[in-house]
Design brief:
The complex is a heterodimer of chains A (317) and B (303). Chain A has 317 residues and is mainly α. Chain A is built from twelve helices and no strands. The longest helix of chain A has 38 residues. Chain A is globular. In chain B, 54% of the residues are buried. In chain B, helix 7 packs antiparallel against helix 9, helix 8 packs across helix 9 and helix 9 packs parallel to helix 10. Chain B contains twelve helices and no strands. The longest helix of chain B is centred in the C-terminal third of the chain and has 38 residues. The chains are: A mainly alpha (317), B mainly alpha (303). At the A-B interface, helix 1, helix 6, helix 7, helix 8 and helix 10 of A face helix 5, helix 6, helix 9, helix 10 and helix 11 of B.
């Protein structure tokens, strides 16, 4: 196991290096003189010069890259152009909010996606099954920012039962915290519920065709027991994968959702940075998100090996 | 499976190493597709949106960007089929031109990611020496959540339809490359390919005649889903202001403009969202249907 962990960690290194390189290069994509674009067309020469110095654009890309890596080793992602503070501080302050939102959405996803997927498989090709597939299809087709707006109109404005936006910290009011997370959580989770329900259903159907399930049924074990004892454990494998993938989607989905619901998390930090062309924040945010995801995938891979001892790793297939 | 990004990083455990399909006999393939109810539903849904896009000039009842301050916030009526927005522009007309824009962007992304992703996938899968470097770079691009990277690239390049296509193509190309590489790895070990190698056929000819045709089925399925993701992702880019800039009638722009008037006139934001959802739904159904029919190994799962 220790060898497996070590080997997977090592294999993540080149990807992480490339991730840092891509994050650092985003500003290179800005056409023309980035300082001029960032400062805006109305900026004075002095202001443009100031932006140029702040971004290190007066030095070559190579030098800037080395500085960026140097800072990275010290946990320093640079200084925000607008927030008057370091990128690391800004991200660390906002990250817990996003994690709370993503965690809440993930809990909804698993609590709803797995059961409806299992039920759909057990009732395959009945009306219940079709209904689950329709829900899954809607989940993957409806744009979540639009769903958010519609939910805000229904529950925040017309029915007026839930806050239409904003975020209540858990410490202020646990109930208010949950209430402020319900609509954004549903908006984020619907897609994942659809994905997870479909994958759970497909895996469950696969498992139910296996010999050991037939054997268990043949020896007189009731279906409830077969599912509980034998099938669910095997269904856990895709659930774990989806949790890994979901978390990435939830983190990136938070850019849009946090903007729509005015939630002060990392997503909104990034969205604001993108609108105001605050490149140090954009680069830092990209890097942190991608790193979290690479590490998460690593954990998911290792969890596989724990859940399913048959899985062995001889390098990446 | 879709959202922008959402959908973006759709899990592809099943497609990753698909066994290549022997080219299905033309007629029976069509019959199977036409017998697939969900596929036909997808064709109809997508066909409606495609018709909106193709015949936008005929279907529109007004110029999509023409403002009319005396007819703001009209409810749906004969003259304004879906009502008017905060500038008095006809929502139905904007919707059909929005279909043209969304589908154009989606199709351009499919084309770009199809060509580039296939090329990279073929090279990585066929030439073992290229596999490592190419796929590590693809892995790194895929490490970023798709929509986040697309937003960052689009905002760096500047808001425009072309830049939205570039950003979305950059994000979805690695996902296409991975699928193609997966099939190539399987096909290149097949006896008939080995026979071609042994008989001294050139690499280009082998790839063109043997490898590529066998990679087509999973590729087409994947591109159908990417079309859906691209339409959804484009609407997000527009909504956040890094897509084609207003007053261009894009569905994302229309929802963004409607956001300010949710209380008074929720219909402004409602219709374009339904259009996006129907388009994505149609494409997802098409993709599911194609996958069921083109990949017999997965067909079983449908029951």
């Amino acid at each position: 196991m220790a060898e497996l962990i070590l080997r997977r960690l090592l294999s993540a290194v080149p990807v992480l290096l490339l991730v840092t390189l891509i994050s650092a290069s985003i500003m290179q994509l800005v056409p023309g003189d980035p300082a001029l674009v960032i400062a805006g067309t109305n900026a004075s020469d002095a202001e443009v010069q100031q932006v140029r110095r702040a971004l290190g654009l007066d030095r070559s890309f190579g030098v800037r890259l080395l500085e960026w890596y140097g800072g990275l080793l010290r946990g320093d992602l640079g200084q925000s152009l607008l927030l008057n503070r370091s990128v690391t501080d800004a991200i660390l302050e906002r990250l817990p909010v996003t994690l709370a939102l993503a965690g809440f959405a993930l809990a909804l996803t698993v609590a709803i996606g797995v059961p409806i997927g299992v039920i759909a498989a057990l009732k395959a090709n009945t009306i219940i099954d079709q209904a689950v597939l329709v829900v899954a299809l809607i989940g993957v087709s409806v744009p979540n920012f639009w769903l958010s707006l519609m939910l805000i109109v229904c529950f925040g404005v017309w029915l007026d039962v839930l806050p239409a936006g904003g975020y209540t910290p858990f410490a202020d009011s646990p109930l208010g915290w949950v209430r402020s997370l319900i609509l954004p959580g549903i908006s984020l989770a619907l897609l994942q519920i659809g994905l997870l329900a479909r994958i759970t259903r497909a895996t469950m159907l696969e498992v139910l065709r296996q010999d050991y399930v037939r054997t268990a049924r043949a020896k007189g074990l009731p279906m409830r027991m077969v599912v509980g004892q034998h099938a669910l454990r095997n269904v856990m494998v895709p659930v774990v994968t989806v949790i890994g993938i979901s978390f990435g989607l939830l983190l990136s989905g938070s850019v849009v959702i946090e903007t729509v619901y005015s939630i002060p998390g990392m997503g909104r930090l990034l969205a604001t940075a993108i609108f105001s062309r605050d490149y140090p924040v954009i680069q830092g945010g990209l890097l942190v998100t991608a790193t979290v995801l690479v590490l998460l995938n690593l954990v998911v891979d290792l969890l596989y090996a724990v859940i399913d001892p048959r899985i062995k790793y001889d390098g990446r297939s | 499976m879709a959202v922008p990004d959402s959908a973006t990083t759709a899990p592809a455990p099943v497609c990753a190493d698909v066994t290549p399909v022997p080219s299905a006999v033309g007629r029976s393939l069509w019959r199977r597709l036409l017998g697939h109810k969900l596929f036909v539903t997808g064709v109809i849904l997508f066909g409606v949106v495609l018709a909106m896009a193709l015949f936008a000039d005929v279907l529109a009842t007004a110029a999509p960007e023409k403002m009319n301050v005396r007819a703001r916030f009209r409810t749906p009526q004969w003259q304004f089929l879906l009502g008017t927005d905060n500038y008095g522009r006809d929502i139905w007309s904007r919707l059909v031109y929005g279909a043209r824009l969304s589908l154009s962007i989606g199709f351009a992304v499919v084309l770009a990611t199809g060509v580039v992703g296939t090329l990279i996938g073929l090279l990585a899968g066929y030439f073992k020496r290229l596999d490592g470097p190419l796929m590590r770079f693809m892995d790194a691009l895929m490490a970023f959540p798709a929509i986040l990277l697309a937003i960052a690239i689009a905002s760096a390049l500047g808001p425009s339809a072309i830049n939205a296509v570039l950003a979305l193509s950059a994000v979805y190309t690695p996902r296409t490359a991975r699928i193609v590489r997966g099939t190539v790895l399987v096909v290149r070990e097949m006896d008939y390919v080995q026979a071609a190698v042994a008989s001294g056929a050139r690499h280009g000819w082998i790839i063109w005649r043997h490898i590529l045709p066998n990679s087509l089925a999973p590729l087409i399925v994947q591109l159908t889903f990417i079309f859906a993701y691209a339409v959804l992702a484009e609407s997000i880019l527009s909504f956040l202001g890094v897509g084609p800039p207003p007053p261009t009638p894009s569905w994302g722009n229309m929802i963004a403009e409607g956001q300010a008037y949710l209380r008074e006139a929720p219909l402004i934001a409602l219709f374009p969202g339904i259009a996006i959802a129907l388009t994505a739904m149609g494409l997802n159904l098409l993709g599911d249907g194609l996958r069921d029919v083109l990949d017999p190994r997965l067909r079983v799962q449908h029951g």
